[in-house]
Hints:
The protein is α/β, with parallel strands linked by helices. It has helices spanning 6-14, 19-26, 30-37, 44-54, 98-104, 118-127, 176-186, 210-219, 274-277, 295-301, 320-327, 372-378, 392-401, 405-421; strands spanning 3-4, 63-64, 87-92, 108-115, 132-133, 149-152, 190-196, 225-233, 244-252. The longest helix is centred in the C-terminal third of the chain and has 17 residues, at 405-421. The two termini are 35 Å apart.
Amino acid sequence: MPFSYNKLWKLAIDKGLNKTQLRDMAGITNQSLSRLSKDQNVRLDVLDRICSALDCRIEDVMEYVENISLFDDIEESTDVPELKSSLKTISLFSGAGGLDLGLINTGFDIVFANDILKPAIENYKHNIGDIHEGDITKLNPEELPEADVVVGGFPCQPFSNAGNRLGTEDDRGNLYLEVLKMIEVKHPKVVVMENVRGLLSMKNKDGSKLIDTIVYLLENAGPGYKVKYQLLKASDYGVPQNRYRVIIVGIRSDINVDYQFPEPTTYNYDKLSVGAAIKNVDGLPNQDEVWELSPQSQNLIKFIPEGGSWKNIPYEELPDRMKRIRDDMKRYHSPNFYRRFARHEINGTITAAGTPENSGILHPVEDRRYSVREIARIQSFPDTYEFVGDSISSKYKVIGNAVPPKLGEVIGKSIVEQLAKAGY
């Protein structure tokens, strides 16, 4: 019979503690925190230390339940080897902490996090721990903690279709240089960078590929790095979403690790369907929060069946802009607006915009957007992550901007396994 530690997280929140603070107060390891976060068994002495810190009984922090996991039918190994010491990690462009959550679950220790967007910072603080608020270009690497790992999901808008693909002409398109600046000073063992797949086709003004520039600069940063990158599909790694991300991993040249990206962990894609992802959400945090559609969108979606799109909307009901596109689909590359994924399908990419025009944001059978909790599920955020803030649209944005925690966890696990095998 499986365990659930939902009572523990609720008790911690009631006492004003996030997971990192609870770990430090109870004196438990990152490995134990990771196992608790994944509802896995831990030693009795770990629970004793937690209960001493929280002044409670063991039955106040754990319970036996049935069917607690969204992905309980997916058989994958979550055991992570212990390294000689935890991987102290500097997180840049941290957002709401999707990538950091995944790394924490595999034993990484976030010693510094940074972002500039207030809604992301508010959610990071509420759920994960301390985060510095400020412009990354103003950070002085010399003043930051020493670190074994530097991670950075630099802004993706300049390289994404949704962001009009301005690339390096957008000032945000050069913020990857801030990650390199940190590496020049800190010389971490490992570097992880993340971006949208549009990065692979983006070019510099001279016509050269931007990804080649980033790889070259990283290879020659500080002591030098062995760099590999790969386009990963999140649904191949247990995320119920067909979301593509470019992951760049650099291993310091003096470390005897030839990094290999993880093989897909999903063996049954049916278990990642929309229906599976959004089941059993009633009563969970943020499930009652639904961003209302505009009157125009609300009128249009009533014509779209489960599994359909704007192509199902009668021509006379379309706004003029969509009529022009419908009249010349070839010219506009046959866009698939207002996609409503069926319960047996895997959802498309959840974007920061959260608009039905360019995002798989519509509930399969109800005429509404997904709730905040439902899109968090599709992004693989744990149900214990509570999204806070006064603006409901900002909650959709921070979720859409995030790296799926489960994808981050798979990347983190692959790094730890390969470092451990090399004796680190």
